[in-house]
Specification:
Pfam families: DUF7771 (PF24974). With about 240 residues, this protein is an alpha+beta fold. It is about 15% helix and about 30% strand.
Length: about 240
C-alpha cells in the first residue's frame, strides 16, 4: 500500500511540474527582458492611401506637391501646364515663326489661329518623360522657354513664351486651372491671358520701311529708311533684324 501511495505522489508531482513548465513557456517574457522596441503593424491600405493624399512637400518656390511625386517611379504623374499662342496680328500674308529652346524643330502660327503648347513642370520631382529620340517631350529643363520669333521679315531673339515662375503660371495647370492660358500677339503687343486676368508682357518690333527715297516715287525694288515706330511697352525680346 505504501508503494502505491508513493507512486501516486510521484505521478502527481510530475504532472504539477509539467503544468508549471508549460505555463512558463506560454507566458510572455517579462518587461525587463523585452527589447523596448515594439513591432509596428502595417497600416491598412485605405489608411496608407489617406496618409499619402494628405502628405505634401514644399519646393523652394513655395509650391506644394504630393509626396508621391517624389518617388522614383515612371508611373508618377507629372504636372503639365498649357499656354497657347494666338496670332491676332491681322495680316493674312504672314505667319509667326518660332524657333524655341524646348523643341528641335520650328513651329508657326497663322493669322487668326491658335497653337496649343504644353510644358512639363521643371519643379515637380516626378520623373521627366522622354520620347524615343531622347528629347524632353515638353520643356528644356529650365523654368523659362525662350524662342527666336520671326514675322514679316522681323526677327527677335529671347522671346519668352512660357515661364513657370510667372505669377499666373499656377492657374495654367492642365486639369488644375480654370482654363488654358495663352499668349496673344495683337497689334504688336504681347498679352498673357490667364484665369487671374490679362497682363501685357511687352511689344514686338515691327519695322516700317519705305521704297520712296528722295522723292523718286518708290521705284526702287528694295526698302530704304526702315525704322521702328515708337511703342508703349519694352520689347519682349532683343531685335535681331
Amino acid at each position: 500500500m505504501e508503494k502505491k501511495a508513493s507512486d501516486h505522489r510521484r505521478l502527481a508531482l510530475g504532472m504539477v511540474v509539467t503544468l508549471v513548465a508549460t505555463a512558463v513557456a506560454l507566458a510572455p517574457p517579462p518587461a525587463a527582458a523585452q527589447s523596448g522596441v515594439q513591432a509596428k503593424r502595417s497600416p491598412k491600405p485605405e489608411a496608407a492611401a489617406a496618409a499619402a493624399k494628405d502628405c505634401l512637400i514644399t519646393d523652394k518656390n513655395g509650391r506644394r506637391w504630393p509626396c508621391s511625386r517624389a518617388l522614383p517611379s515612371e508611373g508618377a504623374v507629372l504636372t503639365t501646364f498649357r499656354c497657347d499662342v494666338e496670332d491676332r496680328m491681322a495680316n493674312d500674308d504672314y505667319s509667326m515663326f518660332f524657333y524655341c529652346d524646348d523643341s528641335p524643330i520650328e513651329w508657326w502660327v497663322d493669322n487668326g489661329t491658335t497653337m496649343g503648347r504644353t510644358y512639363d513642370s521643371v519643379f515637380d520631382p516626378a520623373p521627366k518623360r522622354r520620347d524615343s529620340g531622347g528629347y524632353l517631350l515638353h520643356g528644356s529643363g529650365e523654368p523659362r522657354v525662350t524662342c527666336e520669333w520671326r514675322y514679316a521679315g522681323n526677327i527677335m531673339s529671347g522671346v519668352v513664351v512660357w515661364d513657370e515662375q510667372w505669377p499666373e503660371a499656377w492657374s495654367c495647370r492642365v486639369g488644375g486651372g480654370d482654363e488654358p492660358c495663352k499668349l496673344v500677339f495683337e497689334n504688336k503687343v504681347v498679352t498673357l491671358v490667364a484665369a487671374k486676368g490679362k497682363r501685357v508682357l511687352g511689344d514686338v518690333a515691327i519695322k516700317e520701311c519705305s521704297n520712296n527715297w528722295g522723292g523718286y516715287g518708290g521705284w526702287l525694288p528694295f526698302g530704304l529708311g526702315c525704322t521702328y515706330p515708337k511703342h508703349e511697352h519694352p520689347y519682349v525680346g532683343t531685335v535681331v533684324s
